[in-house]
Amino acid sequence: MTIAIMGAMQEEIEPLLEFFTDVIIEEYGANKYYKCRYNSHDIILAYSKIGKVFASLTATTMIEKFGAKKLLFSGVAGAISSDLKIGDLIVATKLCQHDLDITAFGHPSGYVPEGSIYVQSDSELLKLSRDVAKELGISLKEGIIATGDQFVADRKRKEWIESRFKADALEMEGASVGVVCQALGVPFFVLRAISDSADDDAGVDFDEFLKTSAKNSAEFLAKMLEKI
Ligand code: ADE
């Protein structure tokens, strides 16, 4: 079975490449895809570039061109919930698009006709993450992740996202990957480690903690892969 492993930035997939063997790089759709092996799995690994459009393209390509049957996303996020600190891991139970807005037509934020406000993560992958966290003695928060084409560095925007979507963390790709996977019938899972708190200091914190937090997330994902 081919498993897709995806990040948005090079820093998010680099720590994963260290675990994988037999790497062959294939270019497609102006992006690089790393075909590799890990234990008995065929892996297709890529970073999409930042944002929902690139993430959707990459997720679709991994499924339609490379035949991925499950998709796991690893990366960093801004914290909303006050109990999430830099470096902490959060797994999405469900995700939404905080910047999807046709409220002018009376629809709720994050909703378009024939869609849904939230997209649900795969329950088996969620359970696996719980089991791995327990085995490793690691604290793994579960919660709602909000996605948008916006780096949030503003307390008011963060509070709005929290109140509207009950979100615990935010980032720029997860929900779009979820929408693609749901439409194409592929179980998916989004794991993030906190790089900042989406407040006035977010830009500085992000630059400082991107690499270490991305590594936390990648290492946990590699442990999960051992058990799939
Ligand atoms: N990813 C990590 N931190 C983020 C932030 N503050 N806003 C959007 N995406 C992020």
Walk me through what this model shows:
With 228 residues, the chain is of the alpha/beta class. The protein has a single domain (2-227), classed as Nucleoside phosphorylase domain (Rossmann fold), CATH 3.40.50.1580. The protein has six helices and ten strands; from the N terminus they run E-H-E-E-E-H-E-E-E-H-E-H-E-H-E-H. The protein is globular and about 50 Å long. It starts with a strand and ends with a helix. Adenine binds next to strand 5, strand 9, strand 10 and helix 6.
CATH topology: Rossmann fold
**Which kinds of small molecule does this entry bind, naming each only once?**
adenine
**Overall domain count:** 1
Major sheet description: 5 strands, mixed, barrel
CATH architectural category: 3-Layer(aba) Sandwich
Q: CATH homologous superfamily - what is it?
A: Nucleoside phosphorylase domain
Lateral arrangement of strands in the main beta sheet: 5-9-8-6-10
The average pLDDT is 97
Question: Structural class, from secondary structure content?
Answer: alpha/beta
CATH class: Alpha Beta
Helix content estimate? 25-40%
List the helices and strands and how they pair.
Blueprint lengths: L1 E6 L2 H8 L3 E8 L2 E8 L2 E7 L4 H13 L5 E10 L9 E9 L20 E3 L2 H14 L3 E8 L7 H11 L3 E3 L2 H11 L3 E9 L5 H25 L2
Parallel strand pairs: 1-4, 1-5, 5-10, 6-8, 8-9
Antiparallel strand pairs: 2-3, 3-4, 5-9, 6-7, 6-10
The site of adenine has 14 residues, from strand 5, strand 9, strand 10 and helix 6.
